[in-house]
Amino acid sequence: MDFIFMILRLIGALIIIFGLMIIVLKYSKKGIDSTTRRNYTKIIDKTQISKDSFIVVIRVGNEGMVLLTSTGHTQKLKDLSEEEINKAEADKQESFKEMTKAYDKFIDISKAKVRAAIGKIKSKEEKHEK
Q: Which residue(s) pair with 58 in the sheet?
């Protein structure tokens, strides 16, 4: 019986820890977004193409550019118009929204599974008490 209570306490502690992690991530994301909106330069996207080489899309003021960066070397590949950079930002925001929806769906499914597991444990305990 002590083993069951120990497992229940462990599960409860894990639920609390994951809940706190979710809360911290949500609030830290808001703080990060508010500080990055005020910057003159902004990294829109970054893609790794080799061990230490990246293609970076950045916005500087109203203009954008594509850079190739590697250790000790940066090269401008292309200038982007304001329309292109706005489209790139919109696409990035859309993918972020889709990822957030998938994350929220995962959280909802996890909550439902935890509730079902707790319900099964409680029903088993009630059967043993009778």
A: 43, 65
Q: What is the pTM of this model?
A: 0.52
Buried b (16+ CB within 10 A) or exposed e, 9-40: eeeeeeeeeeeeeeeeeeeeeeeeeeeeeeee
Question: Quick one: the chain helix, strand, coil %, rounded to 5?
Answer: 65, 25, 10
Q: Which token pair is 54?
A: 């990246």
Contact 41, 58 (CB under 8 A): yes
Q: Tokens 């118009």 map to which residue?
A: 81
- For residue 72, the 8-state DSSP code is T
Tens digit of each residue's pLDDT (9 = 90 or more) over 83-108: 888 888 888 889 889 999 999 999 99
